[in-house]
Amino acid sequence: MTDFQIRGINHIALVCKDMAITVDFYSNTLGLKLIKTIALPDGGQHFFFDIGNGDALAFFWFPSAPKAAPGIASMRVDGFQTGNITTAHGSLNHLAFNVPLEKIEEYREKLVAKGVKVTPVLHHSDVPSGFVPELDESTFISSIYFFDPDGISLEFAANVRSLGDPVRDLHHQPATATSIAN
Asked: 113 by DSSP, 3-state: which?
């Protein structure tokens, strides 16, 4: 018996700097349906998009929000070229949308046709580098990465196999801040 009946993600809430640009990107570029709009008392807004399975992606827009802090609160836009994908504690590193494996290449081509810069298809695998050039028996997720207009790192990810096998998938003990400092 578990303590909580978690049934997935209700919504993930992010912050944008221009709601009109955000609505355009998520509605017209990614094809998500806008399902709820809220006006906030301070003049801000809170909008929700349907991402399937009863889940939503939400955005806040605050009139006086601080500017973005790439490399701290979000991934730097050059992170995939440099390999430095580090972000601060409590930040959103990236948001991965679950998509069908057989659609990854097609979706990449569609994003490129819409002017979105997209990584090549990456096959996340159980090898030291973390990736293999072609899908193989070590691959667990195949995906592509891209950024939204606010620099939020997004991923279209497809599971190649189920995860959770204690022998194949659970090899490492969690690190703690004290174990790293020593």
From this structure: helix
